[in-house]
Structure formats: structure tokens, C-alpha cells
Amino acid sequence: MDKLSEMNREVCTAMNFRNLSYMIKQGFVSMWKNRMMSFASVGSVTAALLILGVILLLILNINNIATVTQNQFDEVVVYLEEDVDQSDTERIGDAINEFDGILSVIYQSKEQALEIMKQNLGENGYLLEGLEEENPLPNSYVIQLKDLKYADDVVMRLEGLTGVEDIRYLKDVLDQLMTIANTVRLGGFIIIGFLILISIFIISNTIKLTVAARKREINIMKYVGATNGFIRGPFVVEGMLLGLIGAVISIAVVYFGYKYLFTVLNEELYVLFTVYLVPYYKIFQDITIIFVSIGVGIGVIGSVLSIRKFLKV
Amino acid sequence: MIEFVNVTKVYDNEVRALSNINISIDKGEFVFLVGPSGAGKSTLIKLLLKETEPSAGRLFFNNKDITKVRNRGVPTIRRKIGMVFQDFRLLPKKTVYENVAFAMRIIGAPNKEIRRQVPIILSMVGLSKKANSYPNQLSGGEQQRVSIARALVNNPSLIIADEPTGNLDPDTAWEIMKLLKEINNRGTTILMATHASEIVNSMKRRVIAVKNGQVIRDEQRGVYGDEF
Ligand SMILES: Nc1ncnc2c1ncn2[C@@H]1O[C@H](COP(=O)(O)OP(=O)(O)OP(=O)(O)O)[C@@H](O)[C@H]1O
Ligand SMILES: [Mg+2]
Which residues, in sequence order, are bridge partners of residue B208? Predict the structure, then answer.
């Protein structure tokens, strides 16, 4: 008798492999039997992951914009009013030089500004041709700060100068971006947490149907000495399949949706905008890993919860 | 092989199902467990199967203290015990053969071993011809034979039967008893809870009588008695 149980232990590993393919087949069979509930399960996982996808893309892009514009944060640009004359312009420049924390102040005429913009556009520079006559760009001072910490102070004092039309100050933008990013992240994670809980609940109820249909079998298995892991196996596989299908659908939607958006923006807006966007081909791997682990995780937790009650024999 | 030492079981609802039970059963014995309804017979069996924990006392099985065994240890114990129930507990959508093979499959026995062992056990209980029938095509006695075959197929050292003849007419009940006697003659210990006084009286085996959660009588070649 003991020889038999020893032998059983040895063959357990060999069994597992065949069991797995059997369990996956069973998983599909019971998914089909409860197809309405399975549909709801996959739907809820997909919904949670899609919203996660949108939030991830927003955060990724905001971070990307922050990185791309990083070296411009210690720069403050002062646009001068149209009617400021030569001597006033020089007076403003001198005044700025007196401020604390200034590394350099460089005057940029409207002609220079147009030239720089043309260069930035590269081969699309022809777009700006003809603008020389009626140059819409203002004259400006480009101020380099010694350190970002002087920025608020300098900007405050610049606002006190006459003849200043506008101040472009990227730390402002950065702060705003970060505020937006934090809000998106916080709000997003609350919504996602909530959706994940709902998905777990729906999946566990779906699998409960299968479990209930096999109550008798589980009871007998317990008395004959099947381990809890063995009994859980097929149900966990069913939960994993539901989660996995949801993950695959949402990966496809997020990836192709973003690819489409990226391409359209690229074509419509040329390079002006898309340097700030994370390229779609860079997100595929991360999205896949995140979505599959969350989808499968939801499935496993949902199924383990659904069968807990029936294992107490 | 089985030893209850000062075992007490109080359920969560404060029902005192067993008080201070001391029982010792040797390998190869055939033991009847008798007593009125609610005496604590099934509770005693549940303790052995680790379905429920004793409130006090110690429990030994095969010379091992199983009082504290939990989780992963439980299947190991159950694989050495074959369980037979009053209501048979067969799977209606599986054939006789598959019902018996099922018990081997779920403990991971290889197919070759299953194909060898199941027919041997089926012929032992006299059901070789019914291997491909479904439970609803069988009589009560035949269904109970299938459940005995399932209990036997993994070569347990102990068979526990909780009122195995409770759903059967007297003649069929006797057939089942003959089968259990035969299994016992091959060396398997048998513990059987029952209300069937005639069977107990004519088998002349050890009888443990419980009442109100206490052992009131424990005799070799005992009788059902009239205390209850
Ligand atoms: N899970 C439980 N929770 C609470 N009380 C229980 C539980 N199981 C049994 N009892 C109580 O414990 C006592 C003993 O029950 P048990 O099932 O052991 O009796 P029994 O001797 O098997 O009776 P019967 O001959 O009717 O099967 C009864 O009073 C019963 O109500
Ligand atoms: Mg009982």
C-alpha cells in the first residue's frame, strides 16, 4: 500500500502536464456553458484594463513631455510689446541683468526667432516661408537662470516691468503638468481599484456556477484525499482564462487605438506635436506585461474566492 | 491503529457531541458503532477524517498523533481511509468504472495502474458486468457496491462506513455485510456506524455503544442492546 502512494508521488509531476491541457479544455467547456456570465466577466476585466490603459498613456505622455522639455525649465522667455523702441528694449535688458540668479540674458529679435523656428522644423521649414514680410513673432529676451529656485522670484519682478507683453516660464507648465499627472494618477487608481474589485466579484460569481454544478464531485474528491490545490486547479484555470481573454482584448484595443491616434497626429500636425508623444511601438511590451498580470491575477483571486467555501469538508 | 484518548467535541453552537471518549481499535478488527440518533457516532467519524477538530484530548491513527494535523496533512490521512456513505455519493454522469477510477485519478495514479486495479476491485465486489452502466441504471445494493469499490480501490488500511445499509432492504443489506466481512477477512480494518440491530446481533463482532456523547458499552462479540 505504501509502495502505491510512493509511486503516486513520483508520477505527480508527469501528471501535471497532462492535467493542465485537460483543465484548459474543461475551462473552455464550462466558460461556454455559462457564457452569459463569462461574457460579463471578460467585459468587466476589459473595462477595467481599458481605463487603466488610458490612464497609463496619459501619465506616460505627461512624463515624456516633462523629460523632453527638461532642459528648458531653467529658461524664462520675456516677450516684448510691439511698440517698445530700441532704448526701452535696452533699458529692460539692463534691468533684468540686475536681478538675482540670472546666468545670462540674450536678446532675440523677431527675425532671429523666425529663423530658429525654421531650423527646428527642419525639412518642413518651408511652411514658414513668406512670413518675413509680416513676421508675427515678438522680440524677446531669453533668460538663463543659475538655478530653477530663482524662477518664481525672477518672474515676479519681470511682471513689474513696463513693455513686457508675456512671460513664458516652463516651470509653471511643469508644475501644472505634475498637478494634472498626480490628479490623473490618483483618480485613475481609485477608479481602477474599484473596477478590479468588481471584476473579481463578477469572475468569482461566474466560477461559483461551475463550482456549484460540481459540488458533489468536489465533496467526493475531498473524502478520497485530493489536495485543495488539485481540486482548485480547474477552477483557477477557468478564472485565468477569463482574465486572460479580457487582457488580450484590452491590449489590442489600447495598442491599436493609440497607434491610430499617434499616426493621425503625426500626419496632421507634422513633427510639431509628436516629439512630445511616447511612440506607440514603445508601449506594447509594458502594456502586455501589466495587462496580462492584472487580468490573470483577477481571475486567480476570483476563482480561489469562489471555491473557498466548498473546500471546508 | 485508531486511538481516542480523552476526546471531547463541543461544536460551535455549544452542543457537546462527545465527552471524554476513550477508544482503541486494532488493525484487522471489525467494529460496530451503535447508539441512538444524535449520540455522536458521525461526529466520531468526522474527527477521524479530520473534517472537524477535537475540543480536547488526543487522536492517533496508525500510531501517529493526528490531533494537530491540518491542511496538507489531511489528504494524506484520507488516502489511507476508504469512506462509505448511506447515500452512496456516486457521480451520476460517470460510469461505474469511471466512478471507481475517479478515486485513483484524483490522487494522481498513472493510467496503467488504473487500468490494472479497477477491474480487479470491480470483480471483487461482483460488478464486472456493470462496469459500463451508470448509477441510475443500478439497484441500491449495486450502487453501494460501487461506492465500496471506490473506497477500496486505493488500498486503504481502514474502511469507515456510516450507516451503509440505511437505504437498503434487509436482503440487500446482508449482501453488503457479506462483502464487508470478506474485505475484513483480507485484513482491512472496518468501522461501521449503524442502527441495524439484527445485523449487529447476528455478526457477533465488537460493539461500541455511545449515548449522549459517551461510551456506555464496549464488548467483543457484542450485541446491539436495548438501552436505546
Ligand atoms: N456541524 C455541527 N454543528 C453543530 N452541531 C452538530 C454538528 N454536527 C452534529 N452536531 C450535533 O452533535 C450531536 C451528535 O451528532 P452526530 O451526527 O454525531 O450523531 P449520530 O450519532 O451520527 O446520529 P445519527 O444516528 O442520527 O446519524 C447532535 O446533537 C448534533 O445535532
Ligand atoms: Mg450519523
Answer: B33, B218
